[in-house]
Design brief:
This protein is of the alpha/beta class. The protein contains 19 helices and 19 strands.
Length: about 500
């Protein structure tokens, strides 16, 4: 049997795993990740095209590298995938796809990871293991679909075009249902959103309400006894039975803890039976708000924190050489789930490397992870200035996807936009009301994708660290304003 050896084996290949691998690489720790899907970031690839995430761009960032996108507050699936592709390339991260972990055997010297691959079973021998893949889609109950139904039941869509011209219902009152319905409506598709509970704050957002009105869609709160019939969906609303004719039902019922992963961790002696039960019975902050809307924020927070077993030691100390990172460790804060999950991976790898526990991370872990400002500060610590200075800024008018034209592809800088069109490029690249300073205009002209920030600083004889930090800050500002993208360092491509 083939055996691979490494210091750190990461289970999963999503954003949390990428953050762990990048941190390990930065600290000189040999590491590889096992992704059961066909590609890195398989969980994001499964999301519908054009999906706008609730988390802003900054919450997806890894290793202090800026995530540039069309709108920092409306980050799309494609923006995130493009960013992580560059992070993986820059870090030369080792992600083994179609590698499914099926067993963990810890001992005094390390952990043997049993792995199924398309070529057969192999083993990975690691000094430590970090588990980041916890969740799977929550399916519809098997008895909720009538035999012989002509309704197509989908757990998710890859594109709104798949259901164009059909009658579509989305089942789910949580974030996944909100996102699926929103992406469909942005493509002009009318939907009926069936929610098992009351409408949440996100359903009352102005842009969502405008989408509902513009597409003739409908929100149905407190829909119960949902069942897929021969030609549609039946449900109860206000105590009365209703029938909704539809061709497609998108079952966006959220995610659940993976029974497979929980079994692996229990068999390996990493989690106790009580801890598993506690995780299954715990409630998120959103669930606490939904169940007790009249409670104060502090009371809702206390319920969520106290319902969850404190797994602080499994991040900062490990158990049987296995550490944990990701969603089950935190109760979720508004629009912050991905950032908090990434933070737990960074903390785990830093602890593995011997770093001290951040003062703000005193147990219980779930409460400490609610302090988002402290988390952001800790994540930005120990990011060497050279990391961002090594990036090659690229001013591309087409980054807004409004300038895609062959005449810009030869040298697509801000200068070429002005030369070929006679227009001020910043008029289109910068958001309305935000002009460009003389320094920013000069930097846009230099950002041709061939020169790093460090090389620009050296060419301008910037030797003072404060001067260089100011230069990086200007570039960060331009990235956040959708003026620039960036390429990895030249040596990252070899």
């Amino acid at each position: 049997m083939t055996t691979l050896t490494t210091k750190l084996c990461v289970i999963g290949g999503g954003p949390t795993a990428v953050a762990a691998l990048f941190e390990a690489r930065a600290r000189g720790i040999p590491a590889l990740a096992l992704e059961s899907g066909a590609t890195p970031l398989a969980s994001l690839h499964a999301h519908i095209e054009g999906l706008v995430y609730l988390s802003p761009a900054s919450h997806w960032e890894v290793g202090g590298l800026p995530l540039d996108c069309r709108d920092a507050l409306e980050c799309e699936r494609e923006d995130v995938l493009h960013y992580y592709a560059r992070v993986i390339q820059m870090g030369r991260l080792d992600i083994r796809c179609r590698h499914r972990c099926v067993g963990l055997r810890p001992d005094a010297d390390g952990v043997t990871v049993e792995v199924e691959t398309p070529e057969g079973r192999i083993e990975v021998r690691a000094e430590e293991v970090l588990v980041t893949a916890w969740y799977e889609r929550r399916p519809l109950p098997p008895d909720s679909v009538e035999p012989g139904s002509r309704v197509e039941v989908r757990e998710g869509l890859r594109s709104a075009a798949e259901v164009a011209g059909q009658r579509v219902a989305v089942l789910g009152g949580g974030i996944s249902g909100f996102e699926q319905a929103g992406a469909l409506m942005m493509a002009g598709q009318p939907v009926t959103l069936l929610m098992r509970g009351e409408a949440r704050g996100m359903h009352r957002l102005p842009h969502f309400a405008r989408l509902v009105a513009a597409t003739g869609s409908r929100l149905v709160p407190n829909a119960s006894a949902v069942r897929v019939t021969r030609d549609g969906v039946t449900y109860h609303e206000g105590g009365e039975a209703r029938h909704l004719p539809c061709d497609v039902l998108v079952a966006a019922c959220g995610a659940r803890l993976s029974p497979h992963v929980l079994e692996l961790l229990t068999r390996a002696g990493v989690l106790t039976g009580d801890e598993v039960r506690g995780l299954r019975e715990s409630v998120s902050l959103e669930e606490a708000k939904q169940a007790h809307p009249d409670w104060t924020a502090a009371e809702q927070e206390r319920l969520a924190v106290e319902s969850r077993p404190d797994l602080w030691p499994l991040v900062f100390e490990g158990r049987r050489r296995v550490r944990l990172a990701g969603g089950p460790l935190h109760v979720g804060a508004s629009n912050a789930g991905v950032m908090v999950s990434i933070a737990t991976a960074v903390f785990a790898v830093r602890a593995m490397a011997g770093a001290r526990v951040p003062p703000c991370m005193a147990p219980p872990l779930a409460r400490a992870l609610l302090n988002l400002e402290a988390l952001l500060q800790v994540l930005r610590e120990e990011v060497p200035p050279a990391r961002v200075e090594s990036l090659r800024p690229l001013a591309v008018g087409s980054w807004s996807r409004a300038w895609v034209h062959p005449h810009l592809l030869e040298r697509p800088t801000a200068q070429s936009v002005e030369r070929t069109s006679g227009l001020d490029p910043t008029r289109f690249l910068l958001p309305p009301g935000l002009g460009a300073s003389d320094m920013e205009r000069e930097l846009l002209g230099l950002a041709d994708g061939t020169t790093s920030i460090a090389e620009i600083a050296e060419a301008n004889e910037m030797t003072d660290p404060a001067e260089r930090a100011k230069l990086v800050a200007i570039f960060r500002n331009l990235w956040s304003r959708n003026v620039l993208t960036w390429l990895p360092p030249q040596d990252a491509e070899r």
